[in-house]
Amino acid sequence: MLSERRLEVLRAIVQDYVGTEEPVGSKALTERHKLGVSPATVRNDMAALEDEGYIAQPHTSAGRIPTDKGYRLFVDKLAGVKPLSVPERRAIQNFLDGAVDLDDVVGRTVRLLAQLTRQVAVVQYPSLTRSTVRHVELLALAPARLMLVLITDTGRVEQRLIDCQTPFGETSLADLRARLNSRIVGRRFTDVPQLVQDLPESFEQDDRATVSTVLSVLLETLVEETEERLMIGGTANLTRFGHDFPLTIRPVLEALEEHVVMLKLLGEAKDSGMTVRIGHENAHEGLTSTSVVTVGYGSGDEAVAKLGVVGPTRMDYPGTMGAVRAVARYVGQILAES
Amino acid sequence: MLSERRLEVLRAIVQDYVGTEEPVGSKALTERHKLGVSPATVRNDMAALEDEGYIAQPHTSAGRIPTDKGYRLFVDKLAGVKPLSVPERRAIQNFLDGAVDLDDVVGRTVRLLAQLTRQVAVVQYPSLTRSTVRHVELLALAPARLMLVLITDTGRVEQRLIDCQTPFGETSLADLRARLNSRIVGRRFTDVPQLVQDLPESFEQDDRATVSTVLSVLLETLVEETEERLMIGGTANLTRFGHDFPLTIRPVLEALEEHVVMLKLLGEAKDSGMTVRIGHENAHEGLTSTSVVTVGYGSGDEAVAKLGVVGPTRMDYPGTMGAVRAVARYVGQILAES
DNA sequence: TCCTGGCACTCGCACGGGCCGAGTGCCAGA
DNA sequence: TCTGGCACTCGGCCCGTGCGAGTGCCAGGA
């Protein structure tokens, strides 16, 4: 177990390195922090910390920098979450209050997070897995061509074109529309499949094929709808990443563009509370030199989606965590109001 | 006026520089291109080209690189549009054919363009100013609560909730729906206002207020719908930009994130035909070291939106223009089919 | 008039040596 | 267990040098 002072040394190293972006040596440490001991003592402590794998030397005769493991210890034991200042909180609220619809809320949140943390912001759209069906509409565009319109309780609308093999009569259409709506309106997406399972059987032989087609398109649409979307912003902040540019940020940009990757990343985080994944803790290869801070947000007590930031492992963890948490809270409030 | 050969020299310089990314000298030029003259002659030509401002030397005793003006001449007079190969065309078609809805079409287009050109792709959603109404649906969610669903010929769907002061009967609703559709289906957004102007008068006194409300929401939606959106992708390609990294790409990333800026940029381009803006020809400051190749696309002969790529001024113009044009054509086809 | 070969010149860049200094590990003493 | 001292390491910086690509100019020839 590390002594109290050694932890203090580690904290000082992390803080200094985050501030200066340069390896920190024993002498500089004693000058900037009131550790109450001499550089020589600090050197011994540093050697111990290095043995344990918390810090490392880029090259002999250079200062130390924290390892992923070092940051992990820092985040878990040494750092708190730095609350935002009152003006910052007020600014967040003002900025988010101006949003007019869901897209706008998410867009503003992304910009806000990116600006506050000076890092890349990732905001997931509220998930629809818990959504319900508000209405299903079926329109005949042509004798053998239907349009299916699905309206969700979150206000989203999806439409699909359906080509049928055989023409579908107006009365059959009205019938199907009515039966569909009476069965699934107000029900959750996940419940729909079994609710409509036996529907084709109750139709005339001639219409069954078409009904089945319509149902399969409907189920497909529901599945697609529950697919999660996200918005990303602040990528320009990647330019403040490090010195060895192209190599570092290229994979990050690539990962960010693959929304699937990012969604998986968010999915791996805890549903409630804040998650910090540091460097190699991130499964995706392109993100092993980044840290990801995420938190769930929601209109009630349940988290409906997640948001967070992606930045260099050398980031200001307390400040970032504070900003992420604060933004998540305010977004939750906004969603609850609307 | 520049002689034929000097133009040829300029073309050779542009081609070599685009290929190697290094200043090109007179000797290398004569070796790689069959100019039929000696390096000394080429040197004289280069001096003349430099006097005219078409090429420049990064430093004395280095080769020449084209200036923005040089690229401009190259694009206008010396370069054609390089058609894509048959396999490439087939790949485009296959890739785009898999799209299920408008978002998917745009998303696939962005990825395709980014991959083909290895640059940043920008695709504007089909603008609705020239769009026509495919269908309007009115649903009663509650006695005094309606939902308006607007479907456009480009496949976009918008919905709005409408709270009425007085309940609106099912028959009136069906009536309004039918009359609305018969008047505006197939008509342009811009024509809709005058087409529905006198509609309230033909309804019972009791229903007029509601009809007016519905109409005003519809018109509002049409206006909002014409607001333009865009999707951007392939930003990872920025890492292949140049040598002096952070400074170059930071402003570009910032400009790309400001969709307003990009929309303005697209708006400045010609509506029909291809537009190439080189370096300082771009009004936005962050993009003065980039070239932007854009072209309109649409389902018919009219362009409904634009797409293009943003890359370094040192780009393969013929190839890029070919890819942009081809993608625009196929996207147009896809939109026309659906 | 235009092209060509030749020649002297310029200058960026890569290479190598030497110096400096920050930082280290170790050790003996308090 | 902490401290001061000391020798050592090694990366970064500065500088001088040599190389070579590239240039401009000029005189001669088609």
TrEMBL record, chains A, B:
Transmembrane segments: none
InterPro entries: GAF-like_dom_sf, HrcA, HrcA_C, WH-like_DNA-bd_sf, WH_DNA-bd_sf, WHTH_transcript_rep_HrcA_IDD
GO annotation terms (biological process): negative regulation of DNA-templated transcription
Lyase as UniProt keyword: no
Cross-referenced Gene3D superfamilies: 3.30.450.40, Heat-inducible transcription repressor hrca homolog, domain 3, Winged helix-like DNA-binding domain superfamily/Winged helix DNA-binding domain
Domain Heat-inducible transcription repressor HrcA C-terminal: 103-321
GO MF annotations, alphabetized: DNA binding
Keywords, alphabetical: Repressor, Stress response, Transcription, Transcription regulation
Pfam families: HrcA
PANTHER family: HEAT-INDUCIBLE TRANSCRIPTION REPRESSOR HRCA
Similarity section: Belongs to the HrcA family.
Task performed by this protein: Negative regulator of class I heat shock genes (grpE-dnaK-dnaJ and groELS operons). Prevents heat-shock induction of these operons.
Protein name: Heat-inducible transcription repressor HrcA
Gene this protein is translated from: hrcA
